[in-house]
Amino acid sequence: MTPKLLLHLLSARSGGRRGQSGFSMLAGILILLALVAGTVGLTTLTASNLLASRKQDTRSDALSVAEAGADQVIAVLNQVENRKMLVSGQRMNQWSTADFTSPCRDKDNKTPGAPTTTARSLGDGQFRNLDTLVANTGNRRFALKSVTFAAGQPGSADRRSDSLTTTAGSSTAVTKGSFSSDLINLQDPPDTPSTKLPGFNKGFITLTVEGQVLRNGVVESTATVTREFEVLPKCCGASLGSGGSGGLAASKGSDPTQSLGGESRFCGVEFGMITGLNGGTVWSNAANDRFTKRVSSTKVTNILNVLGIVAKDGDAFDRASNRVVPNKFSTAIPDVCDPARWFGSSPGCGTTWIGLANATPSAFYGTQDDILGRSISGIPIIPSAITLPPIGSQVTAGKYAFNWSSGGGPAQRVDPSIDGGQRYPTLNPSGSSGFRFRFRTRNDTNPPQIEVCNSSPTSIGGTGSPCTNASWTKISGNAGTVNNLEDFAGMTTGTTATTAFRSGYKNTTSHPNWVSLGSSGGTWQWYGLENNNNDTNSGAGNVQFVSTFGGQGYIRIGDTSGTMTAQRNGICRAANLSGNLGRATLSFKQSGSSAVDSTDELWVQVSTSAGTATTQCTGTTAPDTTSANIGTNWVTVAKFPGLNSGAKTSEVTRVVSLADYQSATTRIRIINGSATTTGEFHVVDDINLRLSDWCEYSASSPASAAPGFHCLGPIFNLDPVDSGLTGGFVTMDASGGPISFYYNRTDDLRGSSYTTAKPANNNSPLVTIGASAAIELVKCAGGPVNTCTTPVPETEVALVGDPDNLNFFGRDSGQLQVVRFGILPVGSGSTATGRIAGAWFYMPVGYFEMRTFGCEGYPNASAAQQAIFNSDDGWIFSGRIWTQSFKPCGDVHIRVPPSSASNLGAVIAASSLLDDINFVPWVGEDWVARSVTNSRPYSP
Prior knowledge:
Blueprint: H1 3-16, H2 21-77, H3 117-121, E1 128-129, E2 140-151, E3 162-167, E4 173-176, E5 203-215, E6 218-235, E7 248-249, E8 266-267, E9 273-275, E10 282-283, E11 290-296, E12 299-302, E13 306-309, E14 324-325, H4 368-372, E15 375-376, E16 379-384, H5 409-413, E17 426-427, E18 436-442, E19 449-454, E20 473-474, E21 482-486, E22 502-503, E23 514-515, E24 524-525, E25 527-530, E26 533-534, E27 543-546, E28 554-557, E29 570-575, E30 584-592, E31 602-607, E32 635-640, E33 652-657, E34 666-672, E35 682-691, E36 695-698, E37 708-712, E38 715-717, E39 729-733, E40 739-742, E41 767-768, E42 774-778, E43 806-809, E44 817-822, E45 836-851, H6 863-870, E46 877-889, E47 893-895, H7 904-907, H8 912-915, E48 925-930
Parallel strand pairs: 7-8, 9-13, 9-46, 10-14, 11-47, 13-16, 17-38, 18-39, 37-40, 38-41, 39-42, 40-43, 41-44, 43-45, 44-45, 45-46, 46-47
Antiparallel strand pairs: 1-2, 2-3, 2-5, 3-4, 5-6, 6-48, 11-12, 15-16, 18-19, 19-20, 21-35, 22-24, 23-29, 25-26, 25-29, 27-28, 28-35, 29-34, 30-33, 30-35, 31-32, 31-34, 36-37
């Protein structure tokens, strides 16, 4: 009964009994008591409701703190220097010390920085102020309790199949499958090469966060939430964008629908392998090559792309456009059934091999993109209309051309007014088994200098001697050219071997490198070789001194009425070339009788093992083809066709490099290489033995402020001249600074042939390294080392566009320049020999062929060698190759350094990559996490 109803009843009752006033008093008291009791009950109910409401509010606040705490954790881990923590899979109790180095490299080849202290501290499980993230402070706090990293295997649509869960304070983790950060990447699944879905290889990170609300230092409420965030891979330096993973991946081409990122800028472009310059091609058939890069001390991946230069954006670079052609000369079976895709003529269609026209993806042919020529061994070829900086020449401006100091040896050697300016060195191991040279740069001298040491054997089959302190000679910083000119003026003739073709005394001081032999003492002597014997009659026979030009005569090799047997008639002289590796050249003027033709050759031969200073140049046995005068220890260094212009008429100057013949007992002879008939003879005049430097030091290099050593590019012919002999072995010791070789002059037309002549000539490839030869690059700390053997590590590389430890610069245009670079490494890892790191070939009109196991003329790799090749450290060449045409032959594994540059704008001058495509100048891939229901932008 309500108080109001009770009051009404009592009032009615008292009205009927007006005389009973005592009862009215009692009723009033009862009514008052009822009213008080009702009020107290109502107050108690209201208070209970208020208390329940307050408890509900504090719990909701704690839940909000936990939610906000999860957002705070993701915000911290999304900072560019902390992003490796999003995918690390590290246990939380290791976060304070674990390696979370970012995979990103900026334009200076630097990482974004070390992970922040705040990010690392989140793994300790302590409660932190929601606003400041300082531990154990504030009234609204959160703690990260556990983290689950999840991803899927490549090609799997289940992106949570592999996971790792770690809990604060625990040293163990709960795993499912095999989680790795490598699973979250921008690459397409290898089993579905045509599928390019945005964010396909994404992952997830799940956070369990506890929130607390405190009042007056006392915990009022707690709440725990579990939040899952999507982790997307993206290009370093690119924004996340709307399409999933950030950046327009270069490997996907220019089609935005095939992009793995929402941003329009190109990212992931690498400048290690660039081909197609000046309309060149890639030679490719079998997909048996590897192109890798090291992204950390423990991780190696494939490079993202090879750049294929095209005339304008949108042009194709593939087989259909004839920019990728079958590898006709490799051991891989050529595409005989598709003549339209051959470079040159097709050999016809065979019946055994289906050819690329009908090929399907396989281990041999690679992916469909490999078959179509859009990639090479799985590495996409990106068509790019970029303009690389010109190298420059003696007449054109450029970024890398070196200006030789006036009056110095290199400048005089390329002076067109001196023998046509073609006095380049040739390193040609024709005949010496175990041919070995060492180059060494030194910065402990004033000025710094480059030195050479010849540790080759002095005879065929010899062993040679290691370099010592006394065996080094410098090839930079000397005076200009030393001339040893013999013009045959004032020559007197003799009738004995020791006086035949004796020159006059007047040239004694002008011939510092010609050597006098025999009993004549201070005379300067030429020796005649008549039918492979000492010439004792200088006025008759096949070899004669003719003095009909006012006292200046010439030598005639051949008789007007006789014939000559090949390689038995000529002239010879002794020379001291000790310590002059690469410095000596021989020149002479050649003419001939009208009966001579181009097949009647004149040869230059050299011997470096005369034995004693008095050993003569001529043979001591009867004429025969096995005499020491013809075979043993004599090597042919040049062959010149005959000239039929008439004696001393329309003479042609011949230049021969004596680069690698530098003994004190060197013998040089000019001899009839071919047999002649009656009336055929050669004329030789003005023989000059010149010595000059071919390298120079500079305190700064053309493309950088760093000092360097610059050399005229020699022909490196390291193939043995005869089968069964060991090829050449050249060691480049860059301890004192980088070495650059220049082939960039417009009048330097060497190196246009694919075939190496024996001996090498100007048409031979600029570099020929056979199966038993090598160029090695080493570097040792401290003072100069005679036999440095420490290879330049793959991690020591220059920025893109800067000179590396070893550089080869070719011409910007014109005739082809061939490089046949063979490598057969021994061993693997840092102790492997025979391979090379820290090199850069920039050959705009170059044909660069990399040869190794399995290539024509090379052995097949053994099982152990194949295992090394397949390993991450099985590379044979580490460096950059920018060339017109590129041909990998055999099991090629190239390690490509990071594509970072201090000024990419200078490297890619007027580049459409920068201007039109808007290139992102970062390298690598990182990650960003986002809520799938509440996305928020994060900085790139």
